[in-house]
Amino acid sequence: QTIINLSSMSVYGTISVAEVTEDLLPDSPDVYGQSKIEAERMLDELCRNRAIQSGLSIRLPGTVGRGSHHNFLSDVMERIVAGQPVELRNPDTLFNNIVFVGDLAQFMDQWLRHPKTGHSVTNLAAEAPWPIGEVVNAMYSHAGRTPHISIKTGGKKPFLISLDHARSLGYAPSTVQASVEAFVNDYIG
C-alpha cells in the first residue's frame, strides 16, 4: 500500500532562512500548518508500524493551475484577468515557490508506479529561479494584458526552496518560466 499526503510549506511557519530544506524546524506554524504537521506524523507512524509500505508527504509551495486559489500567484492571476493592479514587493528577489499541477501529477504518478519503502517527506518547487518581478511581467505577457504593477516596500522576507531532496526522490522539476507559462495557459485556456 502507498499513501501520498499533500502537505504544505505552511508546516515551517515563519521562514527566516534564505533557502528552505526539509530539515528546517517549524517556527510558530498557524493552525493550518499544525494540521499538516499532524498528518505527516500520522503517515510516518503508519510506515514505521508497517501498516503501509510506502508514504510520501509533499510539502507544496504555491500550487497553480486552472481553479487554483489561496496562493500568491493565483491571486495575482485573478487580478490580472480582472484588470486590477498588482502590488508587488521585492521585485528583484529570486523566486521558485511554484509547482504547476501537471508537474505535481507526474511526480505522484511516478511515485505510485515505483514507491519507495518507508515515509519520505519532500518540498517541491520549480528550478531556475526567476526574479519575482519578471514572473509577474511574464504572467501579464502570456495573458495578453498590459502590466499594471505598483511596487511596495516591506513585507515577508523572501526565500528559495531547495530541490535537492525532491530530485533524489525522482522529481523532475520544470523551470519557473515553464511553470508560469503552463499556469497562465491553463488558467485562461
Topology overview:
Layout: E1 2-8, E2 19-20, H1 31-48, E3 54-60, E4 62-64, H2 72-82, E5 86-89, E6 94-95, E7 98-100, H3 101-113, E8 118-123, E9 130-131, H4 132-143, E10 149-152, E11 160-161, H5 164-168, H6 176-188
Parallel strand pairs: 1-3, 2-11, 3-8, 4-7, 5-10
Antiparallel strand pairs: 6-9
Helix pairs in contact: 2-4, 4-6
Short note summarizing the structure:
The protein has 189 residues and is of the alpha/beta class.
Which keywords apply here?
alpha/beta, three-stranded parallel sheet, two-stranded parallel sheet, about 190 residues
- Please, what is the oligomeric state? single chain
Whole-number mean pLDDT: 96
Largest sheet: 3 strands, parallel
The end-to-end distance, rounded to whole angstroms, is 37 Å
Q: Main sheet: which strands, in order across? A: 1-3-8
Structural notes for this entry:
A three-stranded parallel beta sheet has the order 1-3-8, with helices on both faces. Helix content is 38%, strand content 22%. The protein is an alpha/beta fold and 189 residues long. The radius of gyration is 17 Å and the shape is globular.
